[in-house]
Amino acid sequence: MTAPIERFDQLDLQAPLLAALTEIGYETPSPIQAACIPLLLAGNDILGEAQTGTGKTAAFALPALDKVDLSKRNPQVLVLAPTRELAIQVAEAFQRYASKMPGFHVLPIYGGQSMVVQLRQLSRGAHVIVGTPGRVMDHMERKSLNLDSITTLILDEADEMLRMGFIDDVEWILERIPAERQTALFSATMPDAIRRVAHRYLRDPKEVKIKSATTTVSTIRQRFLQIAGPHKLDALTRILEVEDEFDAAIVFVRTKTATVELAEKLEARGYAAACLNGDMTQQLRERVIEQLKNKTLDIVVATDVAARGIDVPRVSHVINYDIPYDTEAYVHRIGRTGRAGRTGNAILFVAPRENHLLRQIERATRQPIEALKLPSREAVADKRVASFRQQVSEVLESQDLAFFLDVIAGMEENNDSDIREIAAALAYLAQKDRPLQMPDSGKPDFAQMSASAAKPERPARDSREQPREARENRGEILERRRDYAEGRLARYRIDVGREHMASPKDIVGAIANEAGIESRFIGQINLFEDYSTVELPSDLPNDILQILRRARVRQQPLNIRLASPEEASRERGGRPGPGGPGAAPRSAGPKKPFRMEGFDRPAGGDFKSRKPKP
Q1: CA distance linking residue 344 with residue 364, whole number of Å
Q2: Cβ pair 313, 342 in contact under 8 A
């Protein structure tokens, strides 16, 4: 009987990979890692059945990296994934695991990204390609992706590729890469179509079936907040102020640098906070944990690695400031609260582009995560006033105030002031560094812009699926959007246009993701040759404008500013985008047939008969 594998150093992996795993904080292989890594290192094909969140990315990435020859710049590993989000996630995992392998390069390729950029990156060479089937096919037909040296092929989430209609594309690729390769197919379920592919293309595969054991403690209340990066800090401080039964918190971020920066910002706002990361000595680390236990500290900002093993009963909240990339990390994180039978709170910050990670966590934990409504300015002010009243009541009950009564009586007599005015002045002095009332900038509260967290996901934006009435009333909807909320929209100019290969979707994505502006606040977009115009709220705060000036579309800074009257009135010469956020009526003119970039796609989507255009 084979002894169980309890440590990664029991696996026959290269020293750089083991060093990277130690730095990341991986200690014990998950069941699928312990089962698959030895088989893949031995050269076997694998047919793996495992849910998302069981650690399968490391199960195939580590043995694949172990066999990569860094002296060769041609692709040696190909990973096919159903979505661009998963492709990016897998590529990032490869990069983390290979952090101690100098010269290693992984390249994600997927639809929606500039073909020019991908061609340039491919020309530089990559050891591992992670891509969606359609875009991999495009590059294979262009001859821009040579897979003759592929030694390892990974099919990740094969059942999802089947569900999305990619299985024919996958087989097209499998038929055109070297037959002498190692193949690993992973799927959450094993429908007949997947088994047929496995039987046809895998050589005597070893079957590995792992049931997900990822669960979370029922005493932990789990909530998520839809919030963009620029607003995270303000959201965090509001939540810390209004949460009931708050005692202490661990705030998780992804990087060591972020622990230091966030801890300093929290300290500047009056919180007893400190960082905890892998660069700290064991003595410093122990001191931070001891301060958390004895209530000298209330907030610790930590990475996954540094927080492993923390057991402090008073931790009432775990805040996932940065959402983890894998569900096992999420479970480990929130396990720092709700210990020893106590109740706990776990709050997850989710940026608009990270919704797929939220869905993965819910599937893996088999528990829905409820939406959290961001506290408003008024709610925070009410909480501060209530706390101030409580402090005053406690002082009145417990302290001898005779001396101070004499001081106040003298002030009342000498200044001819009302006692209530003096009390108000003292309250101001006591709270001026932490005002009881949050200042009103006159701008919309960003809590309103996060209110969509509780709304269901929108249906597909394909105009063909919309009722005719909705399509015909698009202009009316756009006009209502211009009058939305606190004020009308203004037209801004951005320094990206058609010559930069920009699309309205690119512009909306950059604005929504970088500045946290919801699509309902984005009006009409017009594309011109070397610039574009976009309608946004006329009262955008300066900090949001600064973020948007630095944001990039197609590697081009937006450099946003109010459009001149001539630019604002010039609409017919532009190229308005199709439906969805920022929609505008189509300009008149003949309708052009749809074409894939560089190829003619026959009706029915038969990729096997596609030919490059001359």
Answers
A1: 20
A2: yes
Q: What is the largest CA-CA distance in the chain?
A: 98
Write the pLDDT tens digit of every residue in 64-118: 999 999 999 899 999 999 887 788 889 989 999 999 999 999 999 988 778 888 9
pLDDT of 190 > 60? The answer is: yes
Other residues' Cβ atoms within 10 Å of the Cβ of residue 574: 21
Global pTM exceeds 0.85: no
Distance CA 544, CA 605 (A): 42
Range list for CATH 3.30.70.330 in the chain: 470-569
Name the superfamily (CATH) of residues 470-569: RRM (RNA recognition motif) domain (3.30.70.330)
Question: What 3-state class would DSSP assign to 468?
Answer: helix
Q: How far apart are CA 45 and CA 108, in angstroms?
A: 23
pLDDT at 306: 74
Q: What residues have CB less than 8 Å from 581, skipping those under 6 apart?
A: 508, 512, 519, 520, 522
Helix (H, G, I), strand (E, B) or coil at 323: coil
284 falls in which pLDDT band (50, 70, 90)? Answer: confident
Domain at 220-376, CATH from 3.40.50.1980, 3.40.50.720, 3.40.50.300, 3.60.21.10: 3.40.50.300
Does residue 484 contact residue 520 with C-beta atoms inside 8 Å? yes
**What phi and psi values does residue 472 have, to the nearest 5 degrees?**
-70, -25
For residues 465 and 351, the model is more confident at 351
User: What is the fold, at CATH topology level, of the domain defined by 8-210?
Assistant: Rossmann fold (3.40.50)
- What Å distances lie between residue 460 and 112, 162, 205, 457, 528, CA to CA? 16, 19, 38, 9, 27
Average pLDDT taken over every residue of the chain: 78
Which residue has 């971020």 as its token pair? 253
Q: Which amino acid is at 438?
A: M
Q: How many CA atoms lie within 13 A of 42 on its CB side?
A: 11
List of long-range contacts for 36-39, beta carbons under 8 Å, 24+ apart:
36/60, 36/63, 36/184, 36/208, 37/11, 37/13, 37/62, 37/63, 38/5, 38/11, 38/12, 39/206, 39/208
Count the Cβ atoms, other than its own, within 10 Å of residue 63.
Answer: 26
DSSP string, 25-94: T--S--HHHHHHHHHHHTT--EEEEE-TTSSHHHHHHHHHHHT--TT--S--EEEE-SSHHHHHHHHHHH
Tokens 């060479």 map to which residue? 125
Contact by Cβ (8 Å): 99, 119:
no
Q: How far is CA 79 from CA 61, 149, 174, 181, in A?
A: 9, 14, 12, 13
* Start-end of CATH 3.40.50.300 domains in the chain: 8-210, 220-376
Type of residue found at 363: R
Between 596 and 341, the higher pLDDT residue: 341
Task: Show Cβ contacts of residue 405 under 8 Å, excluding neighbours closer than 6 positions.
Answer: none
- Give the model confidence (pLDDT) of 35-78 as tens digits: 999 999 999 999 998 766 567 889 999 999 999 999 998 999 99
What are the helix and strand counts (H, E) for the chain?
A: 24, 20
Contact (CB, 8 A) for 343 and 194 = no
* Helix, strand, coil abundance in the chain, percent, nearest 5: 45, 15, 40
